[in-house]
Each structure stands twice: as structure tokens, then as C-alpha cells.
Amino acid sequence: MLLEYIAIGVLLFLATAVAAIAIFLGELFGPKRKSDKKAQPYESGMLPIGPGTRRMPVRFYLIAVLFILFDIEIVFFLPWAVVFRQLGLFGLIEMIIFIGILLVGYIYAWKKGALEWE
Amino acid sequence: MDAALIWEWVIKALFLIFFLLGGFAYLTWYERKALARIQVRYGPNRAGPYGLLQPIADAVKLIFKEELTPSMADKVIFILAPIVTVVPVMLMAATVPWGPPIQLFGRTINMSVADLNVGVLYITSIASIAVYGIVLAGWSSNNKYAILGGLRASAQMVSYELALGLAFVLPILLAGSMRLMDIVTKQAEMGWFVLIQPVGALIFLIATLAEIGRAPFDMPDAEQELSSSYHSEYSGMKFALFFMAEYEKMIVICAIAATLFFGGFLGPGVDKWPWLGPIYLLAKIIVLLFLMIWVRATFPRIRYDRLMALGWKVLLPTALGLVFVTALGILLAEAVNPAMLWIIPLLSLVAGVLAVGVIERALRRKEYARR
Questions:
Q1: Which of A111, A117, B66, B150 has the most C-beta neighbours closer than 10 Å?
Q2: Tens of pLDDT along B282-338?
Q3: If pLDDT is split at 50, 70 and 90, which confidence band does B268 have?
Q4: d(CA A74, CA B173)
């Protein structure tokens, strides 16, 4: 069974090679006439002001944290779904309790306005 | 482990890669042609008959373009980002079965690169890696548009990944296995899962649209605000790789959707002639791709706050509800009567209508408050 992962490794190697070759072809055949104007960051023709990477809105962190919370929940769902027929009613009730606890957090986040985007 | 096995892997991997490359090239042609037809235009028709050589002309053009790197960019990550975006897409396609196993040269050959027993889990995990490529591209180009676009794209992708992950749970529940081959064979006896779980399939399709950043959820490349956002500093072949990643992702995700919900390679006569399998799967992929293009031609882009609200407040709870509806239906079918399985589509349709009602009400109330 683990042999299948070697097949994926082969695919990974070949896919990376194809992507690298594509970039290499571009570097090989493309013209190279560098100038200061071309090397500037593109800002619709205006002169760039300040650094390109700056502080980002905290909303993105909030989304990321909520994502981690719920993604773990979903990862927990997957094995549960596989053995659900063996677990039967016990599995369903178990999952409802588990999700019930998480739903409290979800409702809290909703009420706190974490899901609003203004 | 013998030499023949290694050759099998290499040949299957190369076959998959070249299929995706060719598919990418002709998907661009297909999309432009279909969009043009919807908008009563001709579309590309100059290069070759019906414009069939257009993708080749585009590729040659992109190879001969100058590769620009912004002066303050992080050079290594700038080059690495397109590779990190495109490689997971090709890896994602590895587990999709293209047909029943065939006998060739006295060996049994599976029609997928790797028939993993955790296929669906593998797909979800590899799909998450693609987010890195986009964030790194936005961050490394040292451009305000790019970083904003990268952040937006990543926030959108992780938000819809939740609904997508829950939609993945539905076929696993119905089939009782994460192996894609088992999911397909289960659909041979139970009927396509789209019939049992129609709302689940719809949520899957919506969430994948957002996950790939296709219209109407194409905020990641919002041209009028961010000038194509995370890849605005990319040119030449590096840009082509991002483009390739997007279109290959369309193909792969359609293949996965076809496998999970639309019966995969199943179709009349597959048992007798296994070579029909890939043809059926390809036909289903083309139909689903047309659906994506049709959506792009029909719906305007939705606003970012509504996009996030749709993902978090509508799709996530609905998908969660669907998982429990499906679980309940399976339990009833096992305990009472197999015919009880029909409770799943009924209840899920109710849940879907409820969700649509909630959207409708939310939108209407806002309209009212503004006046």
C-alpha cells in the first residue's frame, strides 16, 4: 500500500521538473533588457510610495484562527464518516455532542461580529 | 518492486502531466470559444481551423516574453511561488480513477496514478498547499496590489475550504470509504450520489468555484481594484504557470466532482468495455467545465463581504446540516428499511431551500434599511 506513495513521489518529481523547465524556457528565450522603470513595483503608473509589504488588517488573522478551529473539526469528520456504519446511532449522537460544543463557539464568534466584514 | 513497476509509475505520471498540460491549453480555447458564443461573438478563429492553434500561439508568445522581477522582490520565493502553485494541482489529480483496472502485458494496472486508501483526505490536504503559492506570490513581489490580492485570495480559499471539506464528507459517508475507487463502485450499486445528495453536490460546486477563484467568486483577481492582484508582478512563463494552475485546477476539480458525485467513469457498457471509462469521465468533465464557464458568463462578481458571509454564514451551516441529514438517512436505511435512504434527498432539499430563504431574507432586509 505504501508503494502508492512512491508513485506520488514520482509524480511530484516530474511535475516540479515540468514547472521548472517552463520557467527555464522563459528565462532562456525571453529578452533581457532591464531598466529601473521596469523594476519598479507596478502601481497603475503612479510612483510607488512607502514599502510594498505593510501591516495587514487583523480580520485576516481572525479568519485564519477560525479556519483552523473548524478545519480540525472537519478533519475529525472524515474518519468518522468512514466507520459511521459500524458506529451506528452511537456515532451520530457522539458527533452531535461534539459539534454542539463547537457550535457554541461558532455562535459566539457570529454574535461577536467576527464573521462580519466591513 | 521491480523495474516494470517503476516504468508503470513514470508512464502514468507523464501521461497525467501531459493530459493536464494539453487540457489546460485547450481549456483556454474552449472557454474563450464558449464565452464568445454566449456573448454572440466568434471567439478565436484566426490561428488554424476554428482557432484550434490559438493555445500554441499563446504559449509561444509567452515563452518569448521578458521575465521581469521587481527590484525589491524576494527573488527566491518569487521564482518558487508559481511552482508551489502549479505542482499541488497536478498532484491532486493523482488519485482520480480513470476506469476499472485493466489487464495489460500480464499485469493488473490501476487506471489512476495512486489508488490511495485515504484518497479524499489526500485531495483536501494537497488542495490546501495551493494557498501557500498564492500567499507567497503576493508577499514576495513587494507590491501593494499583490499582497492585498494574496491575502484576499487566501482568506477566501480557507473560508470556502470548510464548506468544501464538509461536502467531501458526504460521499465518504454514503460510500463508507475514502478510496475514490470504492466511492465510484458504490455509486454503481446506489446510483450517482448527486441523486442522493443533490444539495451537497451543489454546495461542492459552489465551494470549488470559490476555491479556484473563478467567477462569480473571482475576488482574488479583481481586475478593476487590484489589477489581477497576486500575479500582477509576474510576466512571461511565470505568469503562464499561474494561469496554468488555475485552469488545471478547474479540470482536476471537475474530475473530482465527477468522481465523487456524478458516478466517475461509470456509464452504460463500462463493465464490458473498460476503455469506455476514460471517455465517460472526460465527457462528464467537459460538461462540468461548461457549467463553470456558463456561470462565469452569467453572474456578476459578488462583493467581498457578501462572499465571506455566504461562505461562513450560509454554506458552512448548511453543509454541516447536510452531513447530519445524510448520517440520519443512512442510520434509518440500515435499521428500518433501505427505501428510507430517500429521506436524504428530501431533507437536504428542505435544508437547501431554507438556506436560499435565509439568503433572500438577509439581502432583502439590507435593501430595506438603506432606504
A1: B150
A2: 888 999 999 888 988 888 888 777 788 888 888 888 888 888 888 888 888 877 777
A3: confident
A4: 13
DSSP B68: -
A116 falls within a domain: no
Question: Is A15 close to B82, i.e. CB distance below 8 A?
Answer: no
What CATH number is attached to the domain comprising A80? 1.20.58.1610
Q: Is the ipTM of this complex over 0.90?
A: no
Best of B1, B9, B91 to disrupt the A interface by mutation (most A CBs within 10 Å)? Answer: B9
User: How many structural domains comprise chain A?
Assistant: 1
Domain ranges of chain B: 3-370
Chain B residues near residue A91 by CB distance under 8 angstroms: 327
The residue with cell 450517482 is B192
Contacts of A116 in chain B (CB under 8 A): 305, 309
Residue B44: how many CA atoms within 13 Å on its side-chain side?
19
Q: How many Å lie between the alpha carbon of A58 and the closest alpha carbon of chain B? A: 11
Is A45 part of any domain? yes
Q: What's the gap in Å between the CA of B41 and the closest CA on chain A? A: 30
Q: What is the pLDDT of residues A46-65, one digit of tens each?
A: 677 767 667 777 778 888 88
pTM of the predicted protein model? 0.88
A 98-117 residues inside an 8 A Cβ radius of B = 99, 110, 115-117
For B363, the grid coordinates are 439581502
Domain span at A90: 2-111
Classify residue A117: in a domain, yes or no.
no
Class of residue B159 by CB neighbours under 10 A (exposed 0-12, middle 13-18, buried 19+): buried
pLDDT of residue A44: 67
CA distance linking residue B187 with residue B274, whole number of Å: 17
